Amino acid sequence: MLLKAYYGQGLGTRLMALLEEWARAKRLHRIFGEVRHKNYRAIALYLKCGFEIEGIARDAACIDGEWHHEYHISKILN
Ligand SMILES: CC(C)(COP(=O)(O)OP(=O)(O)OC[C@H]1O[C@@H](n2cnc3c(N)ncnc32)[C@H](O)[C@@H]1OP(=O)(O)O)[C@@H](O)C(=O)NCCC(=O)NCCS
What separation in Å is there between the alpha carbon of 66 and the centre of ligand 1? Predict the structure, then answer.
């Protein structure tokens, strides 16, 4: 998570690259995450980094009275 002042400068992309480098060094097979379906910036970041949407959890979170779906996203590393 970045402070808003630092959004859009490529830091998220660099952090994801570091995360993947760490995971590969540990010989992990798969990275998995969940992202709210209206978090367009994060979804764009994950897709750009090679993650795929593998499922959807409907009405997984209620925020300020509004229900949000969550995408399950993952990347297979080898
Ligand atoms: C998600 C987050 C880490 C992204 O970090 P960032 O430094 O802004 O991301 P980047 O600058 O590397 O941009 C990555 C991609 O996001 C997309 N993007 C950037 N701004 C966008 C916007 N306003 N709307 C949609 N997509 C956008 C672009 O595809 C961009 O790639 P590109 O610049 O090569 O086109 C950051 O916004 C954040 O900390 N958000 C709050 C926490 C959060 O939502 N975490 C994810 C929870 S699952």
Answer: 23
pTM: 0.94
Q: Are 45 and 37 in contact (CB under 8 A)?
A: no
Residue 8 CB less than 6 A away from ligand 1: yes
Q: What residue ranges define each of the domains in the chain, with the CATH number in brackets?
A: 4-76 (3.40.630.30)
CA of 9 to the centre of ligand 1 (A): 9
Q: Using a 6 Å cutoff on CB, does residue 44 contact ligand 1? A: yes
| Chain segment 21-42, per-residue pLDDT in tens | 999 999 999 999 999 999 999 9
Q: How many CB atoms lie within 10 A of CB 71?
A: 21
Q: Whats the size of the chain, residue-wise?
A: 78
Left (φ > 0), alpha (ψ -120 to 50) or beta: where does 70 sit? beta
